[in-house]
Amino acid sequence: MAQWKVNFDDLDLGLRIGKGNFGEVYKGTYLGTDVAIKKLFFVDDDFMQKYIEREMDTLTGLSHPNIVQLMGLCIETDDMYIITEFISGGDLRSKLKDKTVEMDWRLRTEILRDIALAMNYLHSKNIMHRDLKSHNLLVGENWKVKVCDFGLARSAPSDEDGGGGGGGGGGNNLMTIVGTNEWMAPEVAMGENYDKSADVFSYGMVIYELVTRDKPPVRKLNQSYAFDGNVHKASIPADTPPALWDLLLRCAAQNPSDRPDFKAVVEALKKIIEGLPAAGEASKSRGTSTPKKTSSKKKSSDAAAPKKSTKKASGDGEKKKKKTKKATGDDAAGKEKTKKKKKEKTSEGAETKKKKKKEKTSTDSAEKKPDTKKKKKKSQEKPSTKKKAA
Question: Is 12 a catalytic residue?
């Protein structure tokens, strides 16, 4: 364990990103590298000591691309920290709850394959997880999923211990009832012996989560905590691949010996993925936001559309130009007409004015003529007056 010991001064705790029954998780750094730092509760408790030992023992002996990587252990006075790699996307449960995150069937099935690969590796090392659920599945870049939280993990019992593939077998080594109710196998919940097939049942409940994007249903004691597929089929989407639902039912079988092992699960998922539309056709993006992809056919039609509209716009422009030209011509003609009318009016006015002036002049001269005659008469009368005086 000495090579895993971490000096507390080399750690820098940042924001708290999660909390569980056994501790809280912070995003931080270790020697400058981004890491997840799990601060554990109740470190003096006997159960907690076992939890820490199991997680450390399990993680130090494992190396798989779909299992979270251990970075070290730190003990500082009364506190204990487990340092692992930092996975940026958070847990799978939060992604399933967020309905703005699009997840097509290919993506969901590939996530299930990642989990099955990790579990197949764990079981090959004779290790049971015992708390497999979406909260303990971390989503990394490009939707790569990693299994975490091995505090409840332990070695699988051998046939001599009373396990060995039967769950409820006849040995005396009863194991602790651990896990989370909705994901817990019936034999675990009933306090019977169990083996690695209990993880397969929990995996079946993870399939249910990915199919419905909801938590697994609560099962009843009077039905021995069995999962009733006939009852719950009504809650699945209409377009659920039948082979995926069939795999769920096999994994969630009441009898542990009827469940497949993870090697068979991996093979089944491989066939399901092959039968699903290719990534481009399924509008799938292997990014955590999973945006819809536009098909190339649609893009080409979209690209063609602007040309058509440009042509139309150009035609409209020509029409507009002609219309404007016509309007300008009409305006010019109208102006010319108005000008002509004005000229004619002015000319008529001038003529009328001239005529009136002429008429006035002739009238005035006609009136003045009698006065002239009078004056002439008066002037003729004057000499005669003079003559008489003489």
Answer: no
